[in-house]
Amino acid sequence: MTQQQLWDVDAARSYDTPGTGMFAPDVLGPTVERLAELAAGKAALEFAIGTGRVGIPLAGRGVPVTGIELSEAMVARLREKADETALPVVIGDMATTVVPGTFGLVYLVFNTISNLQTQDEQVECFRNAARHLGPGGRFVVELWVPELRRLPPGQSATVWRSESGYVGMDVYDVLEQRAVSHHSHFDAEEAHRTGRTDAVRLGLSPHRYIWPSELDLMGRLGGFELESRHADWSGAPFTADSRSHVSVYRLPPS
């Protein structure tokens, strides 16, 4: 399944969950706050801007935001909330697409760099970020830490969330350094009321996972140095037990 097929009209229609999940104030608020701080009054470019979850509120903070997005369906959903004047978007691949202008900040949130399926593409993503930045510009990556320590002997899958109505599971291929995330949504009330089997929605997304040290090497290949790494957008310390990280890379000032 290609990324174009994955992020289709149905995915775009169901992506936004106002006030909950990725859109919950305690998730989105610190993200926008930190990015506004890192932009330091300069323009920002979001790779894989999607439906504008982060880009729209960041622009609302007075940061000029431009986006790159592969899925036309996701951009169509964004356009229901912000027009081209308020938030320009170029359709294309975040590893190769170039947009006009020079930016102080490029950012890539919610594990999206792992949607690039090869190491070469991921390195090119760093190089593309550098291509858009002025001296001293920053590239911010939010990414999960592969949970291979949780794999039982002889097993290839971990359940990373299990709650009423939802199960999230990652299936790992440790030889190829890949993972497929499986998302199972179940509406028990609807199933009981209607007898419909399609009350269960199944989704999947393929990833090439990246260790923090490998990500740092990609940064160096792109001309960056690691400026900071925290466990979340609020600045919690990154430790061996952290399940994700926010890494800030910076180009030399001259």
TrEMBL record:
Record keywords: Methyltransferase, Transferase
InterPro entries, sorted: Methyltransf_25, SAM-dependent_MTases_sf
UniProt organism field: Streptomyces griseoviridis
BP terms from Gene Ontology: methylation
Record lineage: Bacteria, Bacillati, Actinomycetota, Actinomycetes, Kitasatosporales
Cited SUPFAM superfamilies: S-adenosyl-L-methionine-dependent methyltransferases
Pfam families linked: Methyltransf_25
CDD domains recorded: AdoMet_MTases (cd02440)
Protein name (Swiss-Prot/TrEMBL): SAM-dependent methyltransferase
Start and end residues of each Methyltransferase domain: 45-137
A GO MF term: methyltransferase activity
